[in-house]
Design goal:
The complex is a heterodimer of chains A (113) and B (112). With 113 residues, chain A is mainly β. Chain A has no helices and 11 strands. Chain A has strands at residues 4-7, 10-13, 19-25, 31-37, 43-49, 56-57, 65-68, 74-78, 87-94, 103-104, 108-112. In chain A, strands 2, 4, 5, 6, 9, 10 and 11 form a 7-stranded mixed β-sheet that branches. In chain A, strands 1-3-8-7 form a 4-stranded antiparallel β-sheet, with no helix packed on it. Chain A is globular. Chain B is mainly β. In chain B, strands 1-9-8-3-4 form a 5-stranded mixed β-sheet, with no helix packed on it. Chain B has a 4-stranded antiparallel β-sheet with strand order 2-7-6-5, with no helix packed on it. In chain B, a hairpin with a 5-residue loop joins strand 6 and strand 7. Chain B is globular and about 40 Å long. The chains are: A mainly beta (113), B mainly beta (112).
Chain lengths: 113, 112
């Protein structure tokens, strides 16, 4: 049982390039989340998916798109990366909307030059 | 979500109890208090949560004041591996609010 996994662990992009961050969970959770964490700051919610087939904007959605591919997988896409998107990205999941606890992945460190 | 206030940093001697305070004076009746920690830029790790009663699990104890305006996370016998940033979060996740709002937390350093 790996919990929440994220790929890649680290990525360097040039301004304007695109990429997709992958997240998968093997806990049969319904809800999944994408957060970003900038240096010295707390986490901010980008997008979330309360259940398969639904997605909603969080606090800082601009410049990102998401896809809930199936129950296990929730991807985050940067269509045209900007230096302001340099950050550490964390994926999280929880069993369902009524559960209190979110479980986090190890993070993807993204540097946009 | 209610706002929380935590000290930016604390030190604690190894083997002693670490007591981390959190103020949440605007907490509403539906909101739980959650504690997470983040060790050296890893993903945040859930520690404990509570509504109004004190709670204890294998990691920590959570003491919530009777008026629910503040709480204390207690790590009973701190070890070097407990050095981390600790986040106190107030949210009503179980009522459909999806967002955990992370502030800047308390950086706890365990001193050998």
């Amino acid at each position: 049982n790996a919990g929440v996994t994220q790929t890649p662990k680290f990525q360097v992009l040039k301004t304007g390039q695109s990429m997709t961050l992958q997240c998968a969970q093997d806990m049969n959770h319904n809800s999944m989340y994408w957060y970003r964490q900038d240096p010295g700051m707390g986490l901010r919610l980008i997008y979330y998916s309360a259940s398969e087939g639904t997605t909603d904007k969080g606090e800082v959605p601009n410049g990102y798109n998401v896809s809930r591919l199936n129950k296990r997988e929730f991807s985050l896409r940067l269509e045209s990366a900007a230096p302001s998107q340099t950050s550490v990205y964390f994926c999280a999941s929880k069993r369902d909307r009524a559960q209190e606890t979110q479980y986090f992945g190890p993070g993807t460190r993204l540097l946009v030059l | 979500d209610a706002k929380t206030t935590q000290p930016p940093s604390m030190d604690c001697a190894e083997g002693r109890a670490a007591n981390l305070p959190c103020n949440h004076s605007t907490i509403s009746g539906n909101e739980y208090v959650y504690w997470y920690r983040q060790i050296h830029s890893q993903g945040p790790q859930y520690i404990i949560h509570g509504l109004k009663n004190n709670e204890t699990n294998e990691m920590a104890s959570l003491i919530i004041t009777e008026d629910r305006k503040s709480s204390t996370l207690i790590l009973p016998h701190a070890t070097l591996r407990d050095t981390a940033v600790y986040y106190c979060i107030v949210s009503d996740l179980n009522f459909g609010n999806e967002k955990l709002t992370f502030g800047t937390g308390t950086r706890l350093t365990i001193i050998p």
